[in-house]
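Question (not urgent): is this output format expected?
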Amino acid sequence: MVLLAAATLLGACDSGGDTAGDEPAPTGDTEVTADTSAAPEQDAPPDDTPSTETGPSGDTSPAPDEAADDVPEPGGGGTLAFGVVAGPPSLNPGIGDPAFAALYQWAYDSLIVLQPDGTFAPNLAVDFGYTDDRNMRYELTLREGVKFSDGTDLDAEALKGYFEYVQSQPTSLALLFARVASIEVIGPHSLGLELSEPDPGLNFAFAQGFGGGNVISPAALASPETLDLGTAGAGPYMLVPEESVPNDTYTFVPNLHYWNPGRVHWDEVVVRVIPNSSSIIEALRAGQLQAAQGDATTMTAAAEAGITVVGAPMSIVGINLVDREGTLSAPLGDVRVRRALNHAVDRDAVAAALLGDSRFALSQYALVGHRGYDPALDEVNAYDPERARQLLDDAGYGEGVTIEVLDASLIGLDILVQAIAGQLTEVGVTLDRTTVADPTAYFTGMVTAQYPAVALFYGVSSMQGYKAFFIDPSGPFNPFGTVDPEIDALYAEYYSTTGDTSAIERQINARLVDQAWVLPVMGSPLPWYLAEGLTGIEATSANSSIPTLVDIRPR
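Got this back:
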């Protein structure tokens, strides 16, 4: 996937407060076909308690120590050719970015699975959750009998070593463990985490979206360079290095040590990197791919080509106005200018033009159906070009202003910024665009504060998803280190809140809208494409549109 989505998968969800049950059950074959609709309203926020009823789709086998004699042989489905738009600099998930989950998932099972209904289910961990009423003590118990692909046992010591390894790395993933003060082995397969401050987000951190639960074998961590083009996970497949080329082709074969052989549907999985989204559609039509990561701009073309589109809105898309102190761009240091930009864009028109549906328009920091969503905030940023001109004039820029912005010719970000730029010119604002084609160049340009504004594609399921990466001064989406004491105070209240967090999440949303940290334009789907004859995954806003891809299988 793209690091535009240290975005996409840096969305976060709500953490559970209790422990989960210890036996995942199979789910049905529910799938969304050509789902281009906006996220549905929810009658109530998702339950904060981890699921005790359902497990990852396709997980029908017993735990290893209870395995029956008739467990099926792994594989049997032939070769699955899967397309992604970018490959990671390294296959090591401990130093990587969760934006590359479409590659990591084949070799690394997550500790927990975030279900399509927004609840958390067991996977490598069979019990998990907070054991206090302040979100400061978290415990989990691993499934017994699990081995990594190199034959090493997965136990509490191995998990502790992995967590400590991630903590020690200078990466955005390490921010997930920023509040973990100590890690204690409390049993052969059980760990306890003591936190220095309340943090309700560990369940999501350990699910398939964020990557904090992609546990690596301790034998491989002793020589981590072997993981650049190699894998050592507890997932259903393992990489064949001699048949893989970085950023081009990655070949996986079944992991014969895998704890759940009934979930291994393919004899081989070949992941191909195809940067151009339209080329992915053509490859699917030609039979060169059977499944792929898509993007919002090609969903309609995919559906018209007879391809099954599985996905739901999960990302805030627009322009991140990162230079909020005016270090490189004095105008952006004035909140009136940032508010003017928000009033200058007709979001309905942009969403209808780019995604074919004005319902994807978004002018706040939460998606429809999420706890923090507040319909009243749509009016705060309503399209009003006269108001935009007045705000610019009040700020001293009535004669016009130019703002530098970085975008990328990946997942349609350049097309989005071009559309925004066309509307901003109507109120006297010119975007001086720099467009890069390489995800690494995009991410580097953003995190090193080279540009005052950057195209944004950021996955989110709750306000929790913004804190570590977007709000925190050391987060990659806050490269100029903006600090807002009011937001910090709201987050302190949020982190110590158990139960329903809707009210405090709406307050955080309102503050971000008021300060205009971003020019949000759309709530964009993250789609996945399946050729005829395949099924097995369900992507919803509640699971951040990140399904368990290993469950793709023949009908």
